[in-house]
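Subject: for your reference before the review

Hello V.,

The reviewers asked for a structural picture of the protein, and I figured it would be easier to keep everything in one thread rather than splitting it across files. Below is the amino acid sequence we used in the manuscript, unchanged from the supplementary table.
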Amino acid sequence: MRMNLSKTHKKGYAAVLGLEGYASGSLPKELYELVKLRASILNGCSFCSDMHSHDALEMGMPAAKLFAVAAYNDSPLFSAAERAALRLTDAVTRLDPLQGVSDEVFNAAAEEFSEEEVGNLILAIATINVWNRIAITTQLEPPVRGSCRKQLHRPGWRSGMPSAVN
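And here is what came back from the structure prediction:
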């Protein structure tokens, strides 16, 4: 890790924690984890992708649904509301330089959620994007768990990658 903002920038970090506290209580837990996982995947944040995958599993979300987050549009495992939330996550995370979030995406979310819920979704998406940027910039690494430890210590493996890749 390059730096630990919770120690070096306590007030700023506390402000992000405050936003997290609000956002985490403003949406159904499963939807919140899906949004956090999707944004983390889009941003390439291994630390947050790992964390939210494990959090979702611990709360009882089926593994098949987690695997399908990367291709949610084609999966029968997601409700119309979840798809609308994930599309909004995509649009807010990867803002289009010409139109921002399209009316089509925003209106689809507004059809599935109340105005308060859409606002809460936007805040949740913004929050995970802040966390992703902190984790990526400071180079937070996910913990090595279970059977992954065995692979890291196999001959021919360095830094968790097969020797043919290194």
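For the response letter, the relevant points are probably these. The longest helix spans residues 115-137. The beta strands are 157-158, 161-162.

Happy to draft the paragraph if you're swamped.

O.
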